[in-house]
Amino acid sequence: MADGTKKLVIKDLNGFISSQYISPTGKYIMWYDRKAKNYFAYDGKETKNITAKIKVPLWDEVNDTPDLPGPYGVMKWLENDEAVFIYDRYDVWKFDPLGQKRPINITGIGRNSKTSYRYLQTNPEERFLKVDQKLFYRLFNDKTKESGIVEATLKDWMAFEMVDEGRFGIASLVKSKSANTILYTKETYEKSPDLYVRQLIPNSLEEAIRLTGINPQQKEYNWGTAELIKWKAYTGKETQGIVYKPENFDPKKKYPLICYFYETLSDGLYTYHPPSPTPSRLNISFFVSRGYVVLAPDIHYGTGHPARDAYNHIVSGARYLVKQGYIDSTRMGIQGQSWGGIQVAQLVTMTKLFKAAWAGAPVANMTSAYGGIRWESGVNRQFQYEKSQSRIGATLWEKPNLYIENSPLFHLPNVTTPLVIMANDADGAVPWYQGIELFTAMRRLNKKVWMLTYNGEAHNLVERRNRKDIQIREQQYFDWLLKDDVPPKWITEGVPAVKKGKDWGLDY
Questions:
Q1: How far apart are CA 16 and CA 380, in angstroms?
Q2: Which of 333, 494, 486 lies closest to 418 in space, CA to CA?
Q3: How many helices (H) does the chain have, and how many strands (E)?
Q4: Neighbours of 4 (CB within 10 A)
Q5: Residues 79, 111: one domain?
Q6: What is the pLDDT of residues 192-206, one digit of tens each?
Q7: DSSP string, 433-497
Q8: 339 — phi, psi (to 5°)?
Q9: pLDDT tier at 121 (50, 70, 90 boundaries)?
Q10: How far is CA 484 from CA 199, 326, 358, 436, in A?
Q11: Buried-most residue among 101, 172, 209, 354 (CB within 10 A)?
């Protein structure tokens, strides 16, 4: 700052750096190097690897994309830049930015119990931590999906106080400036987020007090339950997912099933799903209330075969539920949006198991989408097929067979399942023409297909009138195929483009 001179610290970094990586006094610059899988600190003179002395990975252990994993991140710096606190998958580690002192696992118990600890900052002006400062951590158990809040100091973690824990999810937490009192929310699938308050008195057995009851009207409706289930996928490995059942569920009855999926969703076991119109995903609580069972299976991927990976987890999960005796195997549907949308389009070319399918913003043809632009960000799309979510792991020229294998367009003659496509003309993530390509190909092949385009809308619907519209159409569509309801006009006759906005086609 004194003379405006510049100095190159590191060149061609494949890694991460943000404001949290720079020490509060400006003495150190720190970054994470993805190739070295370590954090480095620079003090103005030399660079040191400050995390090399621990064997526990600080990078994403469950990364399943064909790219170098990213880090779990930095928690905070200590006062006077004396140390920096960094996360592994479960615990918090204290590191010396000079790399001289041995690293210390300050939480210590997370990995053995499969429970992650993450700092909850209650002072928005806070720039660093103090040794004797009391901190709050949100805990989350990988196995049970239960959450909690812990209060502890950096100086003596083992003297921690458990503020709250149990079978619920925790969102926000705030602390009073003038009293040792906290306010936070708790939720489950059955109970919407309510506010709880607690005075933090050492060794007190007093429980938190619920301040709100924001959804009394929910008692008037058939709601539902959420249950974590496990089964063996066709990969031979155990996987898990959430099964949502109606409140009046009877195991002796046969229910229609809808599978909704997007990578891994089981961590949301205790997430509340309000029945308000959604941007384009399945409105789980709405359909469960109407007598459907919904399965949200976790999908684990390898490299090069995302369509097959989806099949191995989703189809195995659906058939597992059928074996439990309460699912009608002739009345099963699938719904997905974006990456879930393309996986819906892939699945209908691979199996005849499902009677109804709904794909939001799907890619039909990876070869034509490969060189395009994501219009919102301006980023070329190639990276996502090679290294990111599509997980092909190679360029189009290196392995064109994999691009064809995972593109629904090339396998559409196999389709027997009716399909609804949502593709919007202002979508900045998935090109609108991908939806058109899928629709026109299925029409050419005389397949049952419908296409919805919400003009001016992007990847996910924003306008409430459009959210309500797609909600109604999803209900009508699945009720028609999975409950034998009468189909509305938009299904039986369609709505010509010249009548769009005048005739909605929702009547019967």
A1: 21
A2: 333
A3: 10, 26
A4: 5
A5: no
A6: 999 999 988 776 767
A7: HHHHHHHHHHHHTT--EEEE--TT--SS--SHHHHHHHHHHHHHHHHHHHH-PPP-HHHHT---G
A8: -60, -35
A9: very high
A10: 55, 18, 17, 29
A11: 354
For 88, the token pair is 């592994």
| pTM exceeds 0.85 for this model | yes
d(CA 291, CA 325) in angstroms, rounded, equals 16
Give the count of domains, the chain: 3
Range of the domain at 131: 107-219
Where does the pLDDT of residue 2 fall: very low under 50, low under 70, confident under 90, or very high at 90 and above?
A: confident
Q: Verify that 144 and 276 share a domain, yes or no.
A: no
Residues 276, 179, single domain; the answer is no
CA distances (Å), origin 104, targets 81, 84, 487:
16, 11, 64
What SS3 state is found at 199?
strand
Torsion of CA 386, 391, 394, 397, to 10 degrees: -80
Q: What residues pair up with 244 in beta bridges, in sequence order?
A: 226, 294
Residues 267 and 363 placed together within one structural domain of the fold = yes
- Contact criterion met (CB below 8 Å) for 412 and 441: yes
* Mean pLDDT confidence for 169-194: 92
| Residues 63, 6 within the same domain | yes
| Per-residue model confidence (pLDDT) at position 178 | 87
Residue 236, token pair as written in the block? 């031979």
Tokens for 321? 């539920």
User: Which amino acid would we find at residue 186?
Assistant: K
The 3-state secondary structure of 304-340 reads CCHHHHHHHHHHHHHHHHHHCCCEEEEEEEEEEECHH
> Using one digit for the tens of pLDDT, what is the confidence trace for 251-294?
999 999 999 999 999 999 999 999 999 999 999 999 999 999 99
Token pair for 3: 């003379």
- Picking from 360, 361, 358, 449, the residue whose alpha carbon sits closest to that of residue 412 is 449
Instruction: Read off the pLDDT band of 179 (50, 70, 90).
Output: confident
Contact (Cβ atoms closer than 8 angstroms) between residue 342 and residue 359: yes
The CATH number covering residue 241 comes to 3.40.50.1820
Q: Are 76 and 119 in contact (CB under 8 A)?
A: yes
